[in-house]
Specification:
Blueprint lengths: L3 H12 L3 H19 L2 E4 L1 E6 L25 H14 L3 E6 L7 H14 L4 E5 L5 H9 L4 E3 L7 H7 L6 H14 L2 E8 L6 H14 L3 E6 L16 H14 L9 H6 L3 H6 L5 E2 L6 H4 L19 H9 L4 E3 L14
Parallel strand pairs: 1-8, 1-9, 2-3, 3-4, 4-5, 5-6, 6-7
Helix pairs in contact: 1-8, 1-9, 2-9, 4-5, 5-7
The structure holds S-adenosyl-L-homocysteine (SAH).
């Protein structure tokens, strides 16, 4: 648990409109990041391998009720072809993300993970396929998966209920995260910034939860409305609030792997660079086949071009160099991480 003093400090940082205090916060976050990771920027190749989803989250553009979404699934061969392209470009982490699509059974997914790990011995595989049973997660770990991303979305029960239909629960989401951690994955939690109904108190609960869970990664990006969801017309989260939160999370979890997310790059042109300067140390360019990229529309206007596209890695490298950082090749594990034996 955070002390009252700590909580008040978090609150001040999150709420401040004082540019001087903000700059101090970012400088402190950068210093902390540089103590652990120097100037290195880790890259991940993001493969969005299915947009079928059995869930109906109110914020998400690929929710099952969106019958305008053009659904697709990649085959195992297509996924491996993405990895090949990515490997040649210098990626050493592949992130397989998708909707909750039960076509991809545990066995099928485990096979895909194993195939990637057999071909690319020096690569890490990250899964981001939502809530499954502990047994499923164990199977993925045994197949060789290294990391798992599952944003908790909000640590406040009532707020969770405002974002999700009643068949989903914060309790199960948290159960998944604790299971993943116990099994031995590098685990990523996280939340959207400015989602409908989010208050400063919700954010403080998020921070409290992150402090308790001690995840290896935290995904934080602004909420952006999607026109085919119940949240169409709601306000998007702001860049400044996202940056302040990135910095505070860096200070609470000094060694955390913290991406400057696509959503941040989408709401502002130099969002990703500003994320880096607020304590982020990871970027996740899109490695999906170009013919499906525009179909993985979690929110309106989602970027998949420019530096967001894996094949434009040179752009990204230059933009990172321009702010004093350098993109490195390599798995980019969390500092100090040791894989647990099965
Ligand atoms: N099915 C997987 C992957 C979800 S997509 C899972 O459940 O983990 C990855 C993330 O995109 C989500 O966790 C959510 O935080 C984010 N996201 C979804 N819709 C969004 C929106 N409208 N604006 C911003 N981020 C969104």
């Amino acid at each position: 648990m955070a002390t009252t003093g700590e909580r008040e400090q978090w609150r001040e940082w999150i709420e401040t409109k004082n540019k001087v205090l903000e700059e101090q916060l970012y400088a402190l976050a950068r210093q902390t990041r540089e103590n652990w990771y120097g100037k290195d920027v880790y890259i991940r190749g993001l493969i969005e391998f299915t947009n079928y989803c059995k869930n109906d989250c109110y914020y998400c553009g690929i929710r099952r009720s969106n019958n305008k979404a053009l659904r697709y699934r990649l085959t195992e061969e297509e996924i491996l072809a993405c990895c090949k392209t990515g490997y040649e470009l210098g990626f050493r982490t592949f992130v397989l993300q998708g909707g909750e699509d039960l076509f991809f059974t545990d066995l099928r997914l485990a096979r895909i993970v194993a195939a990637i790990k057999e071909t690319y011995l020096d690569c890490a595989v990250t899964l981001s396929v939502g809530e499954r049973s502990r047994k499923s997660y164990e199977m993925f770990y045994e197949a060789g998966a290294d990391r798992y991303l599952l944003r908790h979305e909000t640590a406040n029960d009532a707020h969770y209920g405002q974002l999700h239909p009643k068949e989903m629960s914060l309790e199960n989401r948290k159960r998944c995260l604790w299971d993943l951690k116990e099994i031995g994955f590098q685990v990523g939690a996280g939340m959207m910034v400015g989602s409908p109904g989010q208050t400063v108190e919700c954010i403080l609960e998020d921070l409290e939860f992150l402090k308790e869970l001690q995840p290896d990664m935290v995904g934080i990006g602004p909420f952006i409305p999607h026109c085919e969801t119940p949240f169409y017309g709601q306000k998007a989260g702001t860049v400044d609030q996202t940056l302040r939160l990135l910095a505070v999370v860096r200070l609470i979890l000094p060694q955390v792997l913290l991406p400057a997310t696509t959503a941040l790059g989408t709401i502002e042109q130099d969002g990703r660079e500003r994320g880096m300067l607020a304590g982020a140390n990871v970027v996740m360019p899109n490695l999906s086949p170009s013919n499906v990229r525009d179909k993985y529309q979690l929110y309106d206007g989602k970027l998949c071009t420019g530096s967001e596209a894996a094949e434009n890695l040179d752009n990204l490298k230059r933009s990172m160099e321009a702010i004093g950082y350098r993109v490195v090749s390599g798995r980019g594990d969390r500092a100090g991480y040791v894989r647990k034996a099965i």
